[in-house]
Amino acid sequence: MLETKNLTIRFGGHVAVDGVSCAFQPGTLTAIVGPNGAGKTTYFNLISGQLPASSGEVWLDGENLSDQPAPVRTRRGLGRAFQLTQLFAHLSVLENVRLAVQARHRKGLKLLSVWLSHRELIAEARTILERVRLASRADDLAASLPHGDQRKLEVAMLIALDPKVYLFDEPTAGMSVDEVPVVLDLIRALKAEKRHTLLLVEHKMDVVRELADRIIVLHQGRLVADGDPATVIASPIVQEAYLGVAA
After folding, report:
1. In 132-228, which residue ranges form alpha helices assigned H by DSSP?
2. What is the side-by-side strand order in the sheet with 63-64?
3. CA–CA dist 210, 37 (Å, integer)
4. pLDDT per residue as tens digits for the range 8-36
5. For the whole model, what pTM was predicted?
6. Structural domains of the chain in order of their starting residue, each with its CATH number
7. Which one, of 175, 169, 125, lies nearest residue 150 by Cα?
8. Do residues 128 and 159 lie in contact, with contact meaning Cβ atoms separated by under 8 Å?
9. Is the predicted pLDDT of residue 197 greater than 80, yes or no?
10. Strands 14-24 vs 29-33: parallel, antiparallel or unpaired
11. Fewer CB within 10 Å of terminal CB in the chain, N or C?
Protein backbone atom coordinates (compact mmCIF):
# COMPACT_ATOMS: atom_id res chain seq x y z
CA MET A 1 0.00 0.00 0.00
CA LEU A 2 2.73 2.50 1.01
CA GLU A 3 6.22 2.59 -0.45
CA THR A 4 9.18 4.96 -0.26
CA LYS A 5 11.84 4.77 -2.95
CA ASN A 6 15.32 6.16 -2.22
CA LEU A 7 13.72 8.83 -0.04
CA THR A 8 16.32 11.45 0.88
CA ILE A 9 16.48 14.90 2.43
CA ARG A 10 19.51 17.13 2.91
CA PHE A 11 19.83 20.15 5.15
CA GLY A 12 22.92 21.87 3.81
CA GLY A 13 25.67 19.28 4.06
CA HIS A 14 23.72 17.07 6.48
CA VAL A 15 21.77 14.11 5.08
CA ALA A 16 18.96 13.54 7.58
CA VAL A 17 17.29 10.70 5.64
CA ASP A 18 19.56 8.87 3.24
CA GLY A 19 18.02 6.86 0.40
CA VAL A 20 15.43 4.92 2.42
CA SER A 21 13.49 2.41 0.33
CA CYS A 22 10.78 0.45 2.12
CA ALA A 23 7.31 -0.97 1.43
CA PHE A 24 4.53 -1.35 4.00
CA GLN A 25 1.52 -3.63 3.60
CA PRO A 26 -2.09 -3.35 4.80
CA GLY A 27 -2.92 -5.17 8.02
CA THR A 28 0.59 -4.79 9.44
CA LEU A 29 2.20 -2.61 12.08
CA THR A 30 5.81 -1.61 11.50
CA ALA A 31 7.79 -0.02 14.30
CA ILE A 32 10.51 2.44 13.31
CA VAL A 33 13.27 2.64 15.89
CA GLY A 34 16.70 4.14 16.24
CA PRO A 35 18.69 6.50 18.46
CA ASN A 36 17.83 10.18 18.81
CA GLY A 37 18.66 12.02 15.61
CA ALA A 38 18.42 8.88 13.49
CA GLY A 39 15.88 10.46 11.13
CA LYS A 40 12.69 8.73 12.29
CA THR A 41 10.45 11.79 12.60
CA THR A 42 12.03 13.34 9.50
CA TYR A 43 11.16 10.17 7.59
CA PHE A 44 7.54 10.57 8.73
CA ASN A 45 7.63 14.23 7.66
CA LEU A 46 8.76 13.19 4.19
CA ILE A 47 6.04 10.55 3.88
CA SER A 48 3.25 12.86 5.05
CA GLY A 49 4.48 15.87 3.07
CA GLN A 50 5.44 18.15 5.95
CA LEU A 51 8.90 18.32 4.36
CA PRO A 52 9.77 18.21 0.64
CA ALA A 53 12.23 15.46 -0.25
CA SER A 54 15.56 16.35 -1.82
CA SER A 55 15.15 13.21 -3.93
CA GLY A 56 13.20 9.96 -3.96
CA GLU A 57 9.52 9.14 -4.11
CA VAL A 58 6.48 8.32 -1.95
CA TRP A 59 3.87 5.98 -3.43
CA LEU A 60 0.43 5.11 -2.05
CA ASP A 61 -1.81 2.54 -3.77
CA GLY A 62 0.21 2.83 -6.94
CA GLU A 63 0.01 6.65 -7.04
CA ASN A 64 3.13 8.79 -6.87
CA LEU A 65 2.50 11.45 -4.22
CA SER A 66 6.01 12.87 -4.24
CA ASP A 67 5.01 16.26 -5.66
CA GLN A 68 1.82 16.56 -3.62
CA PRO A 69 1.52 18.80 -0.53
CA ALA A 70 0.49 17.47 2.87
CA PRO A 71 -3.27 18.25 2.55
CA VAL A 72 -3.50 16.28 -0.70
CA ARG A 73 -1.66 13.35 0.84
CA THR A 74 -4.08 13.43 3.76
CA ARG A 75 -7.04 13.25 1.37
CA ARG A 76 -5.40 10.33 -0.41
CA GLY A 77 -5.27 8.43 2.89
CA LEU A 78 -2.11 9.31 4.83
CA GLY A 79 -2.99 10.08 8.45
CA ARG A 80 -0.40 11.56 10.81
CA ALA A 81 -0.26 11.94 14.59
CA PHE A 82 2.60 14.14 15.78
CA GLN A 83 4.99 14.13 18.73
CA LEU A 84 3.44 17.47 19.72
CA THR A 85 -0.34 17.57 19.62
CA GLN A 86 -1.96 19.39 16.72
CA LEU A 87 -5.40 20.50 17.93
CA PHE A 88 -7.86 23.35 17.51
CA ALA A 89 -7.14 24.57 21.01
CA HIS A 90 -10.04 27.03 21.33
CA LEU A 91 -12.70 24.68 20.01
CA SER A 92 -14.43 22.02 22.08
CA VAL A 93 -13.32 18.42 22.12
CA LEU A 94 -16.43 17.45 20.16
CA GLU A 95 -15.87 20.19 17.58
CA ASN A 96 -12.31 19.00 16.98
CA VAL A 97 -13.51 15.51 16.14
CA ARG A 98 -16.57 16.74 14.25
CA LEU A 99 -14.34 18.80 11.95
CA ALA A 100 -12.26 15.72 11.19
CA VAL A 101 -15.40 13.68 10.43
CA GLN A 102 -16.66 16.52 8.25
CA ALA A 103 -13.36 16.65 6.36
CA ARG A 104 -13.61 12.95 5.57
CA HIS A 105 -17.16 13.37 4.26
CA ARG A 106 -15.99 16.52 2.41
CA LYS A 107 -18.97 18.55 3.53
CA GLY A 108 -18.28 22.26 3.45
CA LEU A 109 -18.68 24.69 6.30
CA LYS A 110 -22.02 26.49 6.28
CA LEU A 111 -23.08 28.80 9.07
CA LEU A 112 -26.30 27.00 9.99
CA SER A 113 -26.12 23.61 8.31
CA VAL A 114 -23.07 22.33 10.19
CA TRP A 115 -24.95 21.91 13.46
CA LEU A 116 -28.56 21.79 12.28
CA SER A 117 -28.35 19.58 9.19
CA HIS A 118 -25.22 17.57 9.87
CA ARG A 119 -26.37 15.84 13.00
CA GLU A 120 -25.05 12.55 11.63
CA LEU A 121 -21.53 14.03 11.72
CA ILE A 122 -21.96 15.00 15.35
CA ALA A 123 -23.29 11.54 16.21
CA GLU A 124 -20.29 9.93 14.55
CA ALA A 125 -17.95 12.26 16.42
CA ARG A 126 -19.57 11.32 19.74
CA THR A 127 -19.15 7.62 18.93
CA ILE A 128 -15.43 8.16 18.35
CA LEU A 129 -15.13 10.09 21.62
CA GLU A 130 -16.71 7.13 23.40
CA ARG A 131 -14.10 4.91 21.78
CA VAL A 132 -11.22 7.00 23.13
CA ARG A 133 -12.91 7.54 26.51
CA LEU A 134 -13.36 11.28 26.11
CA ALA A 135 -17.16 11.41 25.86
CA SER A 136 -17.44 13.05 29.29
CA ARG A 137 -15.24 15.93 28.11
CA ALA A 138 -17.01 16.55 24.80
CA ASP A 139 -17.94 20.14 25.67
CA ASP A 140 -14.59 21.12 27.19
CA LEU A 141 -12.14 23.26 25.26
CA ALA A 142 -9.29 21.23 23.80
CA ALA A 143 -6.84 23.66 25.43
CA SER A 144 -8.20 22.77 28.86
CA LEU A 145 -7.41 19.06 28.57
CA PRO A 146 -4.44 17.56 30.39
CA HIS A 147 -1.66 16.35 28.12
CA GLY A 148 -2.76 12.71 28.12
CA ASP A 149 -6.29 13.61 27.05
CA GLN A 150 -4.94 15.87 24.32
CA ARG A 151 -3.01 12.90 22.96
CA LYS A 152 -6.19 10.82 22.99
CA LEU A 153 -8.07 13.61 21.25
CA GLU A 154 -5.49 13.73 18.48
CA VAL A 155 -5.86 9.98 17.97
CA ALA A 156 -9.64 10.45 17.90
CA MET A 157 -9.28 13.04 15.13
CA LEU A 158 -7.05 10.67 13.21
CA ILE A 159 -9.58 7.85 13.55
CA ALA A 160 -12.29 10.25 12.34
CA LEU A 161 -10.35 10.76 9.10
CA ASP A 162 -10.26 6.97 8.60
CA PRO A 163 -6.96 7.02 6.66
CA LYS A 164 -5.47 4.08 4.81
CA VAL A 165 -2.14 4.64 6.56
CA TYR A 166 -1.67 5.66 10.20
CA LEU A 167 1.61 7.34 11.11
CA PHE A 168 1.99 7.39 14.90
CA ASP A 169 4.98 9.42 16.13
CA GLU A 170 5.56 8.46 19.78
CA PRO A 171 1.82 8.41 20.57
CA THR A 172 2.37 7.73 24.29
CA ALA A 173 4.99 10.46 24.84
CA GLY A 174 4.31 12.44 28.00
CA MET A 175 1.40 10.25 29.07
CA SER A 176 1.04 8.84 32.55
CA VAL A 177 1.22 5.11 33.17
CA ASP A 178 -2.57 5.01 33.61
CA GLU A 179 -3.22 6.80 30.31
CA VAL A 180 -0.93 4.76 28.05
CA PRO A 181 -3.15 1.62 27.83
CA VAL A 182 -6.03 3.58 26.27
CA VAL A 183 -3.93 4.69 23.29
CA LEU A 184 -2.27 1.30 22.92
CA ASP A 185 -5.68 -0.41 22.94
CA LEU A 186 -6.80 1.91 20.13
CA ILE A 187 -3.73 1.02 18.07
CA ARG A 188 -4.31 -2.70 18.72
CA ALA A 189 -7.92 -2.35 17.56
CA LEU A 190 -6.86 -0.57 14.36
CA LYS A 191 -4.31 -3.28 13.69
CA ALA A 192 -6.91 -6.00 14.30
CA GLU A 193 -9.13 -4.54 11.57
CA LYS A 194 -6.50 -5.69 9.03
CA ARG A 195 -7.36 -2.93 6.56
CA HIS A 196 -4.92 -0.24 7.61
CA THR A 197 -1.17 0.15 7.30
CA LEU A 198 0.29 1.29 10.62
CA LEU A 199 3.72 2.84 11.18
CA LEU A 200 4.86 3.57 14.71
CA VAL A 201 7.84 5.54 15.98
CA GLU A 202 8.32 4.49 19.58
CA HIS A 203 11.19 4.43 22.07
CA LYS A 204 9.54 2.06 24.54
CA MET A 205 10.84 -1.35 23.51
CA ASP A 206 8.18 -3.23 25.49
CA VAL A 207 5.53 -1.47 23.37
CA VAL A 208 7.45 -2.26 20.19
CA ARG A 209 7.80 -5.95 21.08
CA GLU A 210 4.10 -6.28 21.83
CA LEU A 211 2.62 -4.39 18.89
CA ALA A 212 5.01 -4.69 15.97
CA ASP A 213 4.88 -7.30 13.23
CA ARG A 214 8.09 -5.85 11.88
CA ILE A 215 10.83 -3.46 12.94
CA ILE A 216 12.94 -1.23 10.75
CA VAL A 217 15.92 0.58 12.22
CA LEU A 218 17.24 3.95 11.10
CA HIS A 219 20.73 5.08 12.06
CA GLN A 220 22.24 8.33 10.82
CA GLY A 221 19.40 8.54 8.32
CA ARG A 222 20.02 5.13 6.79
CA LEU A 223 17.96 1.95 6.93
CA VAL A 224 20.27 -0.47 8.74
CA ALA A 225 17.94 -3.32 9.76
CA ASP A 226 14.55 -4.68 8.72
CA GLY A 227 12.79 -7.81 9.91
CA ASP A 228 10.73 -9.49 12.61
CA PRO A 229 11.05 -7.98 16.11
CA ALA A 230 13.03 -10.78 17.75
CA THR A 231 15.61 -10.96 14.98
CA VAL A 232 16.05 -7.20 14.64
CA ILE A 233 16.34 -6.50 18.35
CA ALA A 234 18.95 -9.25 18.71
CA SER A 235 21.03 -8.12 15.74
CA PRO A 236 24.51 -6.69 16.51
CA ILE A 237 23.88 -3.44 14.64
CA VAL A 238 20.78 -2.71 16.74
CA GLN A 239 22.49 -3.68 19.96
CA GLU A 240 25.20 -1.17 19.17
CA ALA A 241 23.32 1.63 17.39
CA TYR A 242 20.09 1.62 19.37
CA LEU A 243 20.72 -0.08 22.68
CA GLY A 244 24.27 1.16 23.16
CA VAL A 245 25.73 -2.31 23.56
CA ALA A 246 29.05 -2.98 21.83
CA ALA A 247 28.71 -5.53 19.07
Report:
1. 147-161, 180-192, 205-211
2. 14-24, 2-11, 55-60, 63-64
3. 24
4. 999 988 999 999 999 999 999 999 998 88
5. 0.85
6. 1-77+163-247 (3.40.50.300), 81-162 (no CATH)
7. 175
8. yes
9. yes
10. unpaired
11. C
